[in-house]
Amino acid sequence: MADNDKERLLDHSYDGIQEYDNPLPTWWKLIFYATILVVPLYMWDPLGIGLGPGREVAYQQDLAAFAAAHPQNTGPTLNDEQFVALSKDSAKVGEGKALFTTTCVACHRPDGGGLIGPNLTDDFWIHGGKPTDIHKTINEGVLAKGMPNWGKMLKPEQVDVLTAFVISIHGSNPVNPKAPDGVQATPDSATAPVVPAAVKKGK
Ligand code: HEC
Description:
Blueprint: H1 3-8, H2 26-44, H3 55-69, H4 80-86, H5 90-103, H6 105-108, E1 124-125, H7 131-140, H8 156-168, E2 183-184, H9 197-201
């Protein structure tokens, strides 16, 4: 060890480890001080100088953008008859089927025969078999039972075409379906009116 090194060696020794008294290089210190000078701009962003409108405004803008991209689905925009009409529009039903295939099959099977979720093709409905009931279940979900609230994740039009697709597969009798859940929706059942008979034919 050169003499010079001994001079630079500090007195203290921790677990036998000693260190040099090396000053930090000037360029390093200048960058460090420069970063400190910038701090107030980030902390206060007074009057939106230089760095945009400020955190609060930026946050509100982000929230508004998110809300615009994820509109709250309040309820059906179509009535029962309009959903039935939609379920006969093969282009829309095709869109619904494509979405169903990516989003719903894990629980309802590709043919809607049911797996974790109930059979969607039979006459039995837990939450009602009217088109607007089906829309409501898809839109709001049944979180406690494991059915996600798709209205929060999908666009209103997507929930509409999914509803149309579910209506379109009604009565399709897939092989090996899940046992019926819920109430049979007969035409005279007040609690769960059946999907209009016309729908069954209009695949
Ligand atoms: C994570 C599993 C899961 C996924 C994914 C899922 N579901 Fe469900 N779904 C369920 C469960 C569980 C129920 C039954 C809820 C209950 O028991 O109240 C259900 C119920 C339903 C019902 C009502 C059935 C009835 O008898 O009233 C409809 C309609 C439905 N789902 C459509 C869909 C559609 C459309 C999608 C895709 C966008 C979807 N589900 C995705 C689990 C799921």
